[in-house]
Write a sequence for this structure.
């Protein structure tokens, strides 16, 4: 599901694009206490454990979408991880919240590899219109978290950098979940996460690492990545080099911290919905099936499409997502 999904979301996105900015208002500053459960007892993987901390945030109204009944805010707060890139150490998010007192179910929304937030914003607006508060979180080195002209990205051939980006994003999202849980309009018993494509892989790891997150929607995701991709025709030019360093077994050890199937035990305890494409050429269908099997055969929706072609199923997929996070 790539930027072409915007065709399915065009009506909502047009409303968003044409909406005038809200009248200038003073940003609201506040403080949130991140108080984890006993992470070890809760089964949080050691890599993603986070001690108690207090952090400040700033919330600014950006749009009042009067015809949709949704307000959109900009949210910033410091990342619990300090990277070598100063801009990356501030978490940026966009909060789509239905008008009214709530309490609403709420979700974190993570974007695709493209990173322009077209998909995540469209999904967030769609969900907010349906009564689900939605927080689009920019992953590490995305958007305003990357200096102008910088070539640093979330994904890199430098595996260490990529794993550090994943860890930082997961910990950022743990803080974002604490922020949502503290909001008066949010029902803290109905927190979830929705991720698409790359965002779905990070969402799976985040859900495994954050006990507050109960409802999980993984769109075009999978697990057992090395098994799924090692024998892929596109990988053949590279596997001969990987065989020199230990082949598939060595690669599995390296990739394990980023592979959702590593955290299957934690995900079994969540309410999980997967959406998979039967002709997906990016995330092999066998990877989706492997994650579904490993996580207890929970809800899965198969669409007869390629990775990009899944866009044509945007309406039924989003209906399934909204139903899942509101139950």
């Amino acid at each position: 599901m790539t930027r072409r999904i915007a065709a399915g979301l065009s009506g909502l996105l047009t409303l968003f694009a044409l909406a005038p900015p809200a009248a200038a208002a003073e940003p609201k500053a506040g403080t949130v206490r991140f108080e984890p459960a006993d992470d070890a007892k809760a089964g949080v993987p050691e890599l993603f454990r986070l001690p108690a901390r207090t952090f400040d945030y700033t919330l600014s109204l950006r749009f009042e979408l009067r015809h949709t009944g949704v307000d959109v805010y900009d949210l910033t707060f410091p990342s619990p991880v300090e990277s070598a890139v100063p801009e990356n150490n501030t978490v940026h998010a966009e909060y789509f919240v239905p008008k009214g007192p709530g309490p609403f179910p709420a979700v974190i929304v993570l974007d695709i590899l493209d990173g322009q937030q077209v998909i995540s914003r469209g999904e967030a607006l769609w969900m907010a219109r349906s009564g689900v508060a939605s927080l689009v979180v920019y992953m590490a080195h995305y958007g305003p978290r990357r200096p102008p002209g910088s070539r640093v990205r979330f994904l890199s051939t430098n595996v260490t950098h990529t794993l550090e980006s994943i860890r930082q994003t997961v910990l950022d999202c743990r803080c974002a979940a604490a922020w949502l849980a503290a909001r008066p309009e949010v029902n803290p018993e109905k927190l979830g996460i929705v991720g698409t494509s790359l965002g779905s892989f990070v969402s799976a790891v985040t859900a495994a690492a954050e006990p507050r997150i109960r409802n999980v929607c993984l769109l075009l995701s999978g697990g057992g990545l090395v098994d799924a991709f090692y024998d892929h025709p596109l990988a053949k030019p590279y596997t001969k080099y990987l065989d020199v360093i230990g082949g598939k077994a060595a690669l599995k050890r390296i990739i394990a911290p980023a592979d959702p199937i590593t955290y299957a035990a934690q995900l079994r305890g969540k309410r999980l919905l997967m959406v998979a494409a039967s002709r997906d050429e990016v995330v092999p269908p066998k990877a989706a099936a492997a994650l579904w099997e490993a996580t207890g055969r929970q809800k899965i929706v198969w669409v007869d499409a390629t990775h990009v072609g899944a866009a044509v199923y945007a309406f039924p997929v989003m209906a399934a997502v909204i139903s899942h996070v509101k139950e």
